[in-house]
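Subgroup meeting minutes
Present: P.N., E.W., G.H.
Scribe: E.W.

1. P.N. recapped why we're keeping a running log of single-chain structure predictions: easier to compare across weeks, and new members can see raw inputs and outputs side by side.
2. G.H. added today's entry (252 aa).
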Amino acid sequence: MSATSDPQPAEGTGTARPKRILHVVSNVAHYADPSHPTGLWISELTHAYDVFAAKGYEQKLVSPKGGTTPLEPRSLKWPLADGSTKAWLADKDRSALLSSTARPDEINAADFDAIYFTGGHAVMWDFPDNEALQKLTREIWEHGGVVSSVCHGYCGLLNTRLADGELLVKGRRVTGYSWREEVLAGVAKQVPYNSEEEMKKRGALYERAFLPFTVKVVADGRLVTGQNPQSAKATAERVASLLSAEQVSSNL
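Output recorded in log:
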């Protein structure tokens, strides 16, 4: 089975099936001002996808509405568009995945070992209140899977509640795009909320790197979060290490 095919039940061969990763991407194409485009920060997907592909994991993309995920224009320009991004866009099969993402209702959470929320400012609008994504996240978590995010992807974890009604992030260590990075990126006045502050309001134990735009990954049991685009590869590597070492346990 290729890395881009739909997960299927493992045959009764006694051979362990490959791990399966569900990538969550946005459908939003612009800020509140339609003249200011945004979308998926593509390296946050490609860096993680490369890590998981090297492990032989099966991977699938899902978005709140299904279909196309727009791309953040800044992520496609030098020097931010690195080799991983260029290779993805040059690969017709992989590039096609960006226009054919699944809807949440087409996904069976039991098929996946981990969910990975990508970022880009777009997700600030369509991730936090999407109940279908929250359901997938809760089910993957509660069957012992890994829940992960990078950069603004942690907005997808803001309002996810577990079966007992508690917020997933309450009392857990997390990181994600910091307010200081919003200010330095020049978009603090255009974002709909302060995601760092919103995460703290939900009882999460937010952490950030001493220097902005440097690699920072926080793992609290099966919850793995990365601070910014620079952290995507390291975040995926931490997820892979959990899965590879079979450290995933529903009692964490």
